[in-house]
């Protein structure tokens, strides 16, 4: 459809009306942003966005990310008006109520057309960077015929103030992701009031300095918006379009103030806005002619989609493309064969090295794997020999040098996984999971297959000291719902955990890996890690003690068991590489492994709180509830009691021997 | 001392020699940065830095923060050479060994002169912003005579790439912290290789855009370094001095490459560097003339310190200044009296509101309290009516509008607390503790009194939905060593928890506070929260059940107890506002509260993992191990089973009734 400002105004007002009415009905929500950005959204939807509301999962659609997720009514309005099945008008009328897919913030798992869960500020924009990376990467592999779309972002002042913004635009600028366009809702208002309260930054100059193209427009003038977007499209760099807007535009007594950001307008102001906007329709009704113009915005994409479908049918790469976008792994399991051979060998390696060995097998077999590290490539062992860098000059590469940007990396990984066609993995030190923790949480909430390679997973990293030694990180990651935290004990478990992580389409994984060498403890058994925990070593006589350990402490548990057995105390060793998978096993398996009549002892070089679930309060929890220290790893394990010599007497005392 | 380049070169080489020798002896560490920045450090120490090695805690000393903490040998060298008691040469020779205060990364609690623990990149610079804020604030209160110093930072490329850098310099630029100078080790090398691998940013332009003064110098030319620093000192804005350096300068075959960043040079290269530098002294020896020049750098400050001491003695504000810098609270406890009156009243308020009420009492009594919020002032209830903003125009204000910068805020709070004279508190939503988690960890590791006001502490926040609803946050914060996590149940406990947080000089605190209203449950008792947990309500007959709850779920526990008692099941309610303080109580208190012969049930709207410590595995853990949903709070509490109706049957079933 052509850009007719006289028809765009009522279209934008439809967004304003739905937004203020839904927020009013819910008695909570954020009317300011949808009302402020309604004109920009109407232009984008009418003229630029490539989408087909009847096929929300069309692989070559443009991605639209509402980074300022509190303005969710903007997105719900757009989806409804342009003809998606959901949300229905009922859904919108039930905004923020139990059961409505119109949640307070957009949730990708509740509605088609919501490309990502947003609300934690800055992360939507950072995920969009990942989407734009995935687009260029798949374009390099599958060509313009199949992959040729843009990534659009609506971001607010908050998104631009958050630290992750710096990391995200640094990546995008460096990789010259010119098909990414950020529409900044430049309204100079935050929750606390004017942006003058807290910032003096020249944002355009900062983006310019970071390799972006920038342009400003009047966010309430359709022709000026169009001019700015056209300029952005013409530039090879990623673009920031500063849309000068009035927050809550249309609410005559409140617009332009922070009062309209996050609270209902109130019935009087809603009525006044109707008058101001010339909007006579009742709440949750849209006049037929306006709705018809909106529905037309979806028509354009339908034809483009059909043409694309024809090209896909004709493509030699169709099957592979469809497989990858569906997130299915290739048929046949050649990796398993390679790993099975390791059982007969003997590898004393750090699990980070074991992970690299696993990647050398997996990466060639799974072309969808795209790896990277936040500037710790050699330490995280994330790069296989054959991997080439993904760069601005060559998007076909499969390895990303993310720079010292843990949060930006994790969010980009989420974006890649959400885009589809790619399985992202990325590395940093486990301690710096703290830096990207909320992105890991969003992996879990969004149900995406992002795989975190977190190495240097305990005091075992040694000399770098307490700032770098995880203590509470493993247990605290276990607390995040829908996240599998793997802490493998040796080369065999590491390979198994990689396979388990790759097999989970809707669950992200953390691999917590050692810096230090660990002996190979397993020489038989097939995928024993799949049950989360298993008996690695059985008591020779009557079982008195069960040692439960993870990662590098399984070796310690084996030494402890040997010493106890030498004293005639029958001792099992249970390796528990994944607490979450163990919790899913049936009761008989769990009770067989951790029987009521044995003394149960957990050994993990981290927080003990939580281990009582498996040891009982009458068991022992050997762990570390203080910060570490700087010294060689062996000295630290001795100092903090992670040796058979230190553990055996505690167990004997508990047994009264 | 005057700047004599011919004498500065050996001084810088002393740093290089100590650094490469210590790393070589430890067989681990980072020689590249100390060798690269040795010339800059020698100029700074000789000509600019105000310090007195005999009085490391002199309140008006310049603060020097090594944000690139991996280059710790730079700092240890400087402290030793300039005449601090520690580190001794033995300490340095034992770099990174158990018991040496020369840890892998600098630890403020191990050595005087180490102003902050650094290593987690970006945070040193961000803490320095807090120090510079504290300096200007105290200057506004105590005048130039007592407070008039600078904050210097050495930062690397990593510090500048991290997202927190954006937040920190945004705060500093906005507040025009002109007495802060960042010496950027601009060596164009990161661990993975050249910075070209991951960034294309024009860093000076970005700093310019953020309100900073910037200047470049040759980091190996003392006169050019001096020119740049002099320019920085003359400018009113905070300054970034880009020091063009060669990483590992002096190691002839390895300098300028990432190989020299984080590994020993090796004996041959150490020998080659000795030759290159003309450094003939054996390892861990410094020629007398060089040492003498270094010791002279400490002399300058001694005289300045003495003059300052005279001014302090003459000051009317001496007692108050000394008290505040010592971190002692004012004598007398007037707050207690005000809070005692609340027992006789009845306040049904959200605990975030109760916190505001407590602040209205405390803030006037404690002039050292400096509050703020990351753009959620009205939601966190962190600002009292009388508080004025701390701004570039008026540093005497006691309230900071941090902007949407959670991580930057938390790090600045650490810096303020480390500076001394100020007790910082700051607010955001509890969910965004994820954004600043590593700074909270550094509060704990550094043993500072930073107080985090984390509101909207559960699904009880309602409509904003799962992105904003904490589930795992409370328990995961409890895992951080030396951090008190308070979750008060009502207005009385909130006041108590504030007092407990303020009383802990060496332990930071989190206050997890509700968005929703909660009834006042306590009408008697004095500071019962001090024991971490206490019996709020005793069973009327024989005790069968003990309910343990925190925060908003204590109300639910009381209703549950009432229903159970009505059925003749004797039930205690234990309120546990602080698990950490409870763990410190003696066994008899703990056993009395949580006796072995009762069914123990925890009720907390968050992760259950961990509660087995207090309920036993045969108890019940009522919690939430999934993400929340978007709906009004009441609907969510019902949906997720946090009602007496949902809990009573589970308890009866467990009791076999």
Automatic annotation (TrEMBL), chains A, B:
Which residues carry the site feature described as Important for catalytic activity?
A: 30, 261
The reaction(s) catalysed by this protein are: D-sedoheptulose 7-phosphate + D-glyceraldehyde 3-phosphate = aldehydo-D-ribose 5-phosphate + D-xylulose 5-phosphate
Q: Where does Mg(2+) bind?
A: 157, 187, 189
Q: Which CDD domains match?
A: TPP_PYR_DXS_TK_like, TPP_TK
Q: Which PANTHER family match?
A: TRANSKETOLASE, TRANSKETOLASE 1-RELATED
Which residue positions are annotated as catalytic? Answer: 406 (proton donor)
* UniProt name for this protein: Transketolase
Q: Where does thiamine diphosphate bind?
A: 70, 119-121, 158, 187, 261, 432
Enzyme class label: transferase
Q: Quaternary state and partners of this protein?
A: Homodimer.
Please report the organism this UniProt entry assigns to the protein: Pelagerythrobacter marensis
EC numbers listed for it are 2.2.1.1
The family database entries (InterPro entries) matched by this protein are listed as: THDP-binding, Transketo_C/PFOR_II, Transketolase-like_C_2, Transketolase-like_Pyr-bd, Transketolase_bac-like, Transketolase_CS, Transketolase_fam, Transketolase_N
UniProt lists the family membership as follows: Belongs to the transketolase family.
- Locate the transmembrane regions by residue number: none
Taken from the record, one Pfam family name reads: Transketolase_C_1
The UniProt note on the cofactor reads as follows:
Binds 1 thiamine pyrophosphate per subunit. During the reaction, the substrate forms a covalent intermediate with the cofactor.
